Amino acid sequence: MKHKKTNIVLIGMPGSGKSTVGVILAKMLAKSYLDTDILIQNLENRTLQDIVDREGHMVLRAIEERTLLSITCNDHIIATGGSAAYSEPAMKHLKQHGIIVFLHADLPTLQARVRNYDTRGLAKRPNQSFQDLFNERLALYKKYADMTIENSNLTQEQVCETIIDWLQQSQIQ
Questions:
Q1: Which CATH number belongs to the domain containing residue 47 in this structure?
Q2: Whose CA is closest to 19, among 36, 41, 44, 32?
Q3: Reduced to 3 states, what is the DSSP secondary structure of residue 3?
Q4: pLDDT tens for residues 67-116?
Q5: Are 156 and 21 in contact (CB under 8 A)?
Q6: Does 27 fall in a domain?
Q7: Cβ atoms 27, 96 nearer than 8 A
Q8: Residue 103 within a domain
Q9: pLDDT tens-digit profile of 111-170?
Q10: Coil, helix or strand for 62?
Q11: Most buried of 73, 93, 126, 165 (most Cβ within 10 A)?
C-alpha cells in the first residue's frame, strides 16, 4: 500500500534557509512545523555545538539519524539539519511520507549567510572547510531531492511560492 506523502521535508546546507522557509511555508499551507535541529536539542537537553564539542561530529550524526527515524507525522513542514542527508535510512524514512525539497544556494551565498561556521553545531570533521563540506554534501542532497530550488537570489517568500506552485502542478498536495 502506497502512503500519501503529506509532509514537505527541506534539506540543504547551513544557511540555505531551511528553518526560515519552513516556518513561512507552514503558515502559507496551514501545516505544522518541525525543526529537527531544535527537536534534537530538546531531546538531548543541550545544544548541537555542545554535542560536537563533547562527543564529536559522528555522535551528532548518530543522534540525528535516531531522531529522524523516530519522526512519525503527517501534514508537516520538516526542516532538517544540514547533515541529515548523510543517513540513507533516515532519508528513506522521511521520503516515505514526504516530498524532499533541496534548497540549493551557491557557495558564495552560503558563506555570506553563515558567519558562525565554527560555533554553529555542525556535523563536520574538525578543520573541515565550508567549501569541503559543501562539496561533500551536494551529491547527497541531489540524490534524495524530489525537487531542487536554486535559491541564491530568491527571497524566502519566493522560495515558498515556488514550492507551492510545484506541488500544485504535480498535484501532490
A1: 3.40.50.300
A2: 36
A3: coil
A4: 999 999 999 999 999 999 999 999 999 999 999 999 999 999 998 888 77
A5: yes
A6: yes
A7: no
A8: yes
A9: 888 877 676 667 788 888 889 999 999 999 999 999 999 999 999 999 999 999 999 988
A10: helix
A11: 93
CA distance to 3, 4, 109, 113, per residue, from 74 (Å): 10, 9, 32, 31
Question: Cα–Cα–Cα angle for 65, 71, 76, nearest 5°?
Answer: 125
Q: How far is CA 69 from the centre of its chain?
A: 14
Decide: pTM greater than 0.85: yes
Count: domains in the chain: 1
With helix as H, strand as E and coil as C, how does 22-46 read? HHHHHHHHCCEEEEHHHHHHHHHCC
Q: Is 71:36 a contact under the CB 8 Å cutoff?
A: yes
